[in-house]
Amino acid sequence: MEQGRARDAARPYTSAGTPPDVRVPEQARGEHTHGEPSAPRGVQRHSVRGQILDSLRAALVGGELTPGHVYSAPALGARFGVSATPVREAMQQLAAEGAVEVVPNRGFRVSERGPRERAELAEVRALLEIPVVLRLARTVPAARWCALRPLADATVAAAALGDRAGYAESDRAFHRAVLALSGNQQLVAVAGDLHRRSQWPLVSGPAARRADLLADASQHTALLDALIARDLTVVQSLVREHFDGADA
Fold first, then answer.
1. Per the CB 3.0–4.6 Å rule, which of 146, 193, 199, 203 could disulfide with 112?
2. Is residue 59 within 8 Å of 166, Cβ to Cβ?
3. In what order do the strands lie in the sheet with 100-103?
4. Using CB atoms within 10 A of its CB, is residue 212 exposed (0-12), middle (13-18) or buried (19+)?
5. Count of alpha carbons within 13 Å of 181, Cβ hemisphere only?
């Protein structure tokens, strides 16, 4: 159904065109595109906006939205099969997260980030997460660490496919589950925001290769093995290595 439209969208993905490969949930495509839209039956407006937000985040991580380029809400809405309203609302959320910048009367420019910003984000994440993981390594029983195995395996599966967007999502899920064992929901929220921001692509950096994703994912499984074994020396080494590599 979407193949013909995808071919038509092969032209550059800017404010004058529409994105060629952004994946949009089927529910979001049902919204009216004329006038002020009404939500499809069974789907509230906030649900449509949330679906568009998820799709835009995946497009950012996957490199389908280019740093420095301006994208208009109507053009994106046409591609998604929705009005500009939920797209604009989703873009406002991304602006609050620092992923895009509002360009008056034009749309939204994808933020241009450099290696220094990524290194700073990695440093702050390390300051927050490393002490927590080391404390949890001493107190959390092996059975609770074992329960996180499917999340670690999911990062490996996404990495093996070279799925950058899928890997970003599973990577956040694994880290979120580890930190949730602390019982500190504020920590989970703050660390999650920093983690998401660290995943936006660099303005001129190369896309993450499958080998890079696999190396990162393997650290998740190795860390989980060490946590289950309560090998604190290996845990400390792995967790520091994991964050040292995050600013590369």
1. 203
2. no
3. 70-71, 107-110, 100-103
4. middle
5. 24
Cβ 125 vs Cβ 198: under 8 Å = yes
Q: How does pLDDT run across 51-63, given as a tens digit for each residue?
A: 999 889 888 888 8
Query: What SS3 class is residue 185?
Result: helix
Question: Distance (Å, rounded) from C-alpha 30 to C-alpha 21?
Answer: 18
* DSSP H helical ranges for the chain: 3-8, 26-29, 45-62, 73-80, 84-96, 115-139, 142-146, 149-161, 164-180, 185-198, 210-229, 232-244
**Helix, strand or coil for residue 246?**
helix
Cross-strand pairs, 71: 108
Give backbone dihedrals phi and psi of 108, rounded to 5 degrees, phi first: -135, 130
